[in-house]
Amino acid sequence: MYQLTDDFMTDQQTATVEPSNDNLASLESKLINGSEKEQLQLIAQLIDLGEPGWEILMTFLPSSGLTPNAVTGKVYQSLYQIKQTKAQEFLQNNFPDGIIPLKSELNIDYRPLSHLLIEQKFQAADTLTRRKLCELAGKDAIQRKWVYFTEVEQFPPTDLQTINSLWRVYSEGKFGFSVQRKIWLSLGQDFVKLWPKIGWKQANNWTQYPNEFIWDLSAPVGHLPLLNQLRGVRVAASLFSHPVWSEEKS
Fold first, then answer.
1. Which ranges carry the GUN4 N-terminal ARM-like repeat domain (predicted)?
2. Does domain 111-247 fall into CATH 3.50.50.60?
3. pTM of this prediction?
4. Which among 43, 121, 211, 226 would be 20 to 30 A from 58, CA to CA?
């Protein structure tokens, strides 16, 4: 009886099947026309296909509209993470600082925050976000390392929108001040209900920083970025009442 060799079996098991043109066209159509949930699930599948899948994602990114969202953020992150020359050249040529315009009325550099969130280094990004909020508040806040609620009211809308967009877009829509605010509004603006909902309080005990917080996408929606809730709700209330959110679509 003919017996397969180990080498032959290994080759057969590891061989990749090139997707057909029809299959690629179908996947591309689903990426363009699917729901957000379907689109997010499809991105990993396209990455796993290798270069044909990457080509679809690279075509989708610049043609998907001017407003960055959870899907375009995930596409960018996925291409960034594969560390393949063609994909890296595409990103560098078209989106050298990511897909979020890093605008600031105070000339604050948001590139380090952008890079941390693109790489989903959420704990480091959270720390840097607090520093950036202090920069927005001014020298006194930088020295004390936290902000007053009256300082929050004066934050430039452009900067607050930049920080929020970075968090929201590079977290698949799970994190960001606007996400927290939306939950707060749905709870009747009740902070007592908000804290456990977003995982900042458990069984009437404050979640301990940093070990009890969750620094990845398995966290509850709205879990990040953190505010110092131990100082009361006035900072959060000022942030959630900031006029910038009337300009936000989500």
1. 20-96
2. no
3. 0.90
4. 121
